[in-house]
Write a structure and sequence with these properties.
287 residues, two-stranded antiparallel ribbon, 6 helices
Amino acid sequence: MSFGQGGPSWGPGGPGENRTPDWAALAEASAARGRRRKWLMIGGGALATAAVAAIVATAVITTGDNGGTSASDGRASQLPAPEDLPEQSTAPQPSFSSVAPPPPPDPKDYIADARKDKAPVTVDAFFPGKKLTMGDRVYAKGATHDTRSCPATTQGALGSILTANGCDQVVRATYSKDGVAVTVGLAVFGTEAEAKKAAQEASGGLASLSGAGVPTFCRGGAVCRRTSNYYGRYAYFTVGGFTDGTSVTKADKDVFAAGNDVRDFTFRQIRHRGEVQASAAAEAPTT
């Protein structure tokens, strides 16, 4: 009797006979079943591996009309062809002049010649306010004077020198501090050459200007300090000393400091005059 492929096997006498099972046959049948399961598992794994490989290949490879291209080739094919790119812009480009702009006006030009130096010449234009401050030194402004009689403002030979060089006007102002007084005189000429010559030929000196709280000084026999210089068409002179009539010596630093302060301030005022007029000329509209 048999129970199919997996049933027990009996001897030739059948179950009715009192025989033992054929254990060898049973063992062989069991081994055959195990080999079949093993081959089924191996075959199934191979099929699964092949399926995964097919999926990966499908994701990486795309098929086109020309046989096949990669995914990166597909992205590159989406870029516009050279003839589809925008052409170079034809909009007007900025242009620059090849002519260099003119240099800014030189302030010195506007104080070197009367034809350009048009600003009024007055006491307030050069010596404004009631005091002069230079660093930590403050000087009170005393008397002022403005005249077109140049020799009347001088002592000794300076008057004739101013006249010979064409002096047009002299403006004076006095500053004082702690018993020291300094008078500055600004002589106006038509050109820088005239002012330069007058300053270089200076002899004698400027006459001190008293009044407005400053007593007479640097007159008679007292020794005083005198300076002369020029800038543009202006020659400027100073005379400084003690208001009590004491003569000045080289050791009197206060007199020298006061004279230098007044002289430097005058130079700055002349230069500022040129800067103001040059700036106005630069801003004026051109025709």
